[in-house]
Write a structure and sequence with these properties.
Elements (H helix, E strand, L loop, with lengths): L1 H16 L1 H21 L4 E10 L12 H13 L4 H9 L10 H14 E5 L5 E8 L6 H24 L1 H39 L8 H34 L4 E2 L10 H14 L7 H15 L11 E2 L1 H40 L3 H38 L4 E6 L12 H26 L6 H8 L13 H38 L1
Antiparallel strand pairs: 1-3, 1-6, 2-3, 4-5
Helix pairs in contact: 1-13, 2-13, 2-15, 4-5, 4-6, 7-12, 8-11, 9-10, 10-11, 13-15
Length: about 500
Amino acid sequence: MAGLYDELLVLLHGIWSRRWIALGVAWGVAMLGWLAVALIPNSYESKARVYVSTQSLLEDKVGITQVQSQQELERVRSTLASAENLEKVVRETDLSQGVSGPRDVAAKITTLRENITVMAQADPSMIDISAKSADSSLSDGANARIAQQVAQKLIDIFQEENLSGDRTQTRQSLAFLDQQIAARGKQMEAADQRRVEFAQRYVGLLPGAGSISQRMDAARMEINQIDSQLVQAQSALSAMNGQLAGTPQSLPGVGAAGGPSALSQAQSNLAGMRARGWTVDHPDVIAAQREVDALRRQGGGSAGGGGGTPNPAYLSIKSMQAERAATVQALSTRKAQLQADLNAMMAKQVDEPGIASEQEKLDRDYEVLKTQYDKLLADREEIRLRGEVKSETGSVQFRVINPPSIPTAPTAPNRPLLLLGVLIVGIGAGVGVAFAMGQLKGTFPTAARLERAIGLPVAGSISQAVSATQVAVEKQRMKWFAGASGGLAAVCLLLIVVEFVQRGMA
């Protein structure tokens, strides 16, 4: 332990003996370091905090969700540092001074992009905007003023992008959709015209809509339905024929006792039916009218006739038989017509097998165009409604919480700390140089070190004798050394004081 202590004393003595060299190196390093610190431009930063709310009562009703609004807000925030927006900042602030061409604007934009920050907080509605200015060619006051102007302009652009960007985007989207709708409309007209021409050439034989195969299937289904109805009608007609065969055509006449004639009775029945509100198309009214007409042709059906009176039941059954026969005839005619059309269409398919595929292609193209057209119309209406909701209901609420102010103190560099650090580095450099020189010199401060170096015993050593004059000179040198050392510390303190004074003046 004593050896280490002796070694430490030897080292300190070596450094102390070269203290003037150490002090000179410290002064040199400190002056160079302080000059470098002085050349570092002050960086002034202006900060602002804004609140953006995207809540609206109508948003969910028209399909604008909170997630979509936040995504749009994030889009605007990420594009705030675009070249177009930064060019606006350059041209509308004091940064425009000294700009002579596009190259200068591009350089300003590059520097500005590195010095602005747009950051969202934990609450996505809170956004911090900060801008720095550290132009060495400008004064501190100018840099502070430019930082505040840049932050304010970024807020203005942010608000403009949120409030008017949606309107611009809506107009552009609507214009694009209008063009697409007009184009699809023309394509639909052309496709529909081709379908009409095809129908005039090939599909006019069968009624209805759809492809040829669909129309043929519809015709076959209708023929099957007619067959079923025809069987029922023929059965009803056969039943009427059997019933008519078992019904006499006339009944024995009423005697001369003055009973009413058959014609009078038939007319009375007809009048009673009309009195009940039955129309002339009612089956019973038609049968009664036919009975009256038949009795009139037979001479009135009086009681004095010798052949008896016509049977009303027979006349009614006869009328119903005629109706059933007409129904059977109509169904047969319709079936024959459909069968003929179906046969003709089948013959066309045999002669021209590409008809069905051509019509399917035409129908498919038309349906695709119609689906796209309907979707474009729906999208256009939805976008228009969303745009009106955002612009009319004020879905985006923008409020500046902390407006940007002109900074009074630079944020960087921390010049007082740097000045003190340079002083410490200078002192350390001086001590290090003195220590290195002590190690490089070929002297031996103690007899023990000389013994270790030469490997021989040392008989003794002679102490240095100092005269009174030398002592006085050494004291004077100590005063000079103390003054020089204190001057170094005083210069550092003076520079720190000047820095704080400059900050106050800025």
